[in-house]
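Hey, I'm writing a tutorial for new members on how sequence and structure tokens pair up, and I'd like a real worked example in the thread rather than a made-up one. If someone can provide the structure for the chain below, I'll link this post from the tutorial.
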Amino acid sequence: MSRFDVVGIGNALVDVIAHAAEDFLERYSLAKGSMSLIETDRAVELYQALVPAVEMSGGSAANTMVGVASFGGRAAYIGKVDRDDLGAVFSHDMTAVGVRFHSGGPLDQIPTGRCIIVVTPDAERTMNTYLGVSSRLSVDDLDHDVIASGDVLYMEGYLFDRDAAKMAFRAAAEVAHANDRLVSLTLSDSFCVDRHRSDFAALVRDKVDVLFGNEDEVVALYETETLDEAIDAVRADCAISAITVGAKGSYVVTPEQVRLVDAEPVARVLDTTGAGDLYAAGFLYGLTNGADLERCARLGSIAAAEVISHVGPRPLVPLSGLAR
């Protein structure tokens, strides 16, 4: 019997959120409303300048595992943090919501990754992301026993930038399949797909049973003009694909059929951050608990609707109470 419904692999980041006046952006040369990747020295500089700040664990696949746990599912997560204060924050937050966390070993004193979010008085968010040690995950950081004990392995496309991570993805997929588990992947971002299209395509074709992506990401993967053409292509590669199309809902695609499932109504959309992450959480919770595919997509839409109705990428109420 499996110990976990879903085992996730991805970036282990801490969101550092602080309010600051407009002149803070000028003083530190931050482009208002932007998202920038930064290096270690810059990350340390901004982190020390933003006191006080709210710190909470983040990362795309980590959000998904939190969502699975919020539904009442059994989730585990493999990421990489340092033995520093933010690494302790990440570990505590995941454990506190019921997600078993396995950290890869620290590496050459590279700090824990963080997304530093500066909120100005007009509520505009300016983000500076430092991937830190999270992006250095390798084959040696995998916990084979945990992977073998999950019904579904879920891998985050954002982590795909380094060759070591690509090798880790393939190794993890092989462990999962050797133990008769399903392998799933989220494409994460169309720009990420553009950077690694051939490697992504090979991974999807060879190792992935369940694929998650939005319309732009799937079209980018198959370099098609239309979503219909991309759907035709993905049907030949994966047993199940879940493709989100915003307010229209999501397509559930199998080699035998394509079905559009309506989105859950939302009175007011406040922040779409985390919508795809939580959609995957609902879908995977349903899949690992005996739901049919339409029900899986509906659970995904319910979770996505909850998270876009407030600011922040994680649910504010137990998703188990919303499932119906």
